[in-house]
TrEMBL record:
Residues 33-97 form the RNA polymerase sigma-70 region domain. Keywords: DNA-binding, Sigma factor, Transcription, Transcription regulation. Pfam families: Sigma70_r2, Sigma70_r4_2. This is ECF RNA polymerase sigma-E factor. PANTHER family: RNA POLYMERASE ECF-TYPE SIGMA FACTO, RNA POLYMERASE SIGMA FACTOR HI_1459-RELATED. GO terms for biological process: DNA-templated transcription initiation. Belongs to the sigma-70 factor family. ECF subfamily. It comes from Methylacidimicrobium tartarophylax. GO terms for molecular function: DNA binding; sigma factor activity. CDD domains: Sigma70_r4.
Length: 200
C-alpha cells in the first residue's frame, strides 16, 4: 500500500462516516460534527430568535437532541437536513415557549455593548468609525424587520438568503412543499423590502 506523502491532502470524513463512527461508540466523531456545523446552525437559530444568549442555549439543546437521537438516524439520509430540522424546530419551540417573557423590539441584551466602535479613539479612523456605525444601524434595522416576520418566514429567509440552501433542501428541512417555500420567500422578501425601504 502506497504511503501518503507530506503533500497529500488529508481527506475529511463525510457526515455519513462520522455518524457511523458515532453509532459505533466513537465520541470523537460527534465532536467533529459539532465543529463542522456549529457556526452554520448558530446563524440559522439566530435568524429565528434574533437573540444571542437564547441562540447559544438552543444551539446546545440542538446538539444534545441530536446526540440522544443519533441511534435512530437513518444511514443514507442527509445528516445536515436532519440536524437543521432539529435546530429550526427547537428554535421555534423555544421562541414560542418564552415569548411572553420577552419585551418586544429587542434583538438581545448586551449586543450593542459588544459592538462599541473602538475607531473613535483614532481621529484618522473617522471614516471607518462612520462605516461601523452605519453597519450597526443596518444590522439593528434588519433585526427589527426580521422580528416582524413569523418564525416560519424568518427560518426560510435565513436558510435561503444566509445559508444559501435550495428550495428543495429547505422544503426537506421544514417538512413542507417547495411551493410553500417559494410562497413564504416571496412574502418575506416583499415584507422586508417594505420594512427596509430606506435602506434598499
Amino acid at each position: 500500500m502506497e504511503k501518503p506523502t507530506p503533500d497529500t491532502p488529508i481527506r475529511e470524513p463525510t457526515d455519513r462516516e462520522l455518524v457511523l463512527c458515532l453509532q459505533n461508540g466513537d465520541l470523537g466523531a460527534f465532536d467533529q460534527l459539532v465543529k463542522r456545523y456549529q457556526a452554520r446552525l448558530y446563524r440559522v437559530i439566530y435568524g429565528v430568535l434574533l437573540h444571542h444568549e437564547d441562540t447559544n442555549d438552543v444551539l446546545m439543546e440542538t446538539f444534545v437532541k441530536a446526540y440522544r437521537n443519533m441511534g435512530r438516524f437513518r444511514i443514507g439520509a442527509s445528516f445536515y437536513t436532519w440536524i437543521y430540522r432539529i435546530a429550526v424546530n427547537t428554535a421555534i419551540s423555544h421562541r414560542r415557549k418564552f415569548a411572553r417573557f420577552r419585551l418586544a423590539g429587542g434583538s438581545g441584551e448586551g449586543d450593542d455593548e459588544e459592538r462599541t466602535p473602538e475607531a473613535f479613539v483614532d481621529e484618522s479612523a473617522g471614516k471607518e468609525a462612520l462605516r461601523r456605525i452605519e453597519l450597526q444601524e443596518l444590522h439593528r434595522e434588519l433585526d427589527q424587520a426580521l422580528g416582524q416576520l413569523s418564525e416560519a418566514h424568518r427560518a426560510v429567509v435565513t436558510l435561503f438568503d444566509i445559508e444559501g440552501l435550495s428550495h428543495g433542501e429547505i422544503a426537506k428541512i421544514l417538512g413542507c412543499s417547495e411551493g410553500t417555500i417559494r410562497s413564504r420567500l416571496f412574502y418575506a422578501h416583499k415584507r422586508l423590502q417594505q420594512l427596509l425601504r430606506n435602506y434598499v
